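Lab notebook, bench 4. The sequencing result for the construct came back, and we need a structural model before the next group meeting so we can plan mutations. Quick request posted to the team channel:

Model the 3D structure of this chain.
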Amino acid sequence: MFKENNCCCVVCQVERSLLNSLSTQTARTQFQALARTYPILNHFDSPADVIAQLHEHARVELVNHKAWNGILHALVDSIAGGTAEDIGQQLLLVAYAPAIHKVYREVCQKFPGLCPEDSAQQALLCLLETARSAEMQTLNGHLPAALAVRFRRRLFRWAIGELRQSLPLEEIAGNIPAAHGHNFEAGIVLEQLLSKARRMVILSASQCELVRKFHCEGFQPEELRESKDGPSAIALYRRIQRAVHRLRRIGVSGSSRASSVPTTQDENSKNILRDAVDFSGEMGIRNSEKGNSPERSRPGPQVEPEVPPIAA
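Done. Here's the predicted structure in token form:
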């Protein structure tokens, strides 16, 4: 049922260990308890049947999208609500193993200074944290794509944060591939201008944080809302826009660096909420061949590791 996978990376080792765990009688018993809470799982005989259904989503999505989306909602709800949380976590991690592996490889390639084992562990944690987020509980459709997109964004934010903490500011750009160097160079310039703006009391700490999260870390205005009663996404975008205009004014005095400050246009404000829910690319949970990870291949038999503890 599942294709042979010879990759030795931590993500694939965990996937194999989870598959073995899901085939036990204990897992079947836990799954039966989960199915009693979520009727959409009733017609599955075992955890392996659920995984097979999710991995075949590319073929059945058009004719059975509602059921497919409902299965994922059941797993996400069980994790967020603590209902049969262990079996829910295991099923979700195995279902999204191809997506986890793909994004993990991206992080290893774009952030070679990070330890691959740390990146793999963080990838598993990021998927579960994303599943627990309040946003995932409110989505009626698009859950498979939204979970994959938000997970990728969360893991990249972690990688960028780790890089910033481990390297001096001037060395960060040198550790990023050439294709991404310009964006990181602009980010460094923006950080320097934000520091200058704070010293000159031109921007408040909260304004600097909004600009940093929006332009450097990829947050959308809707994600920056602290509560439903707070400023709207459009109001936050306008606040960011005004802060950027102030940054450009302090940067134009004889410095070409001002051109590195991100420009904001009125057209963006019209599309900002649409972009926040625009799920591009594949959802990455079908059972496709994943290829080898960037980690060095190890000869000899593979030892099945224990499943790493996942923070509740």
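The chain has two domains: 12-159, 181-264.
Will bring this to the meeting.
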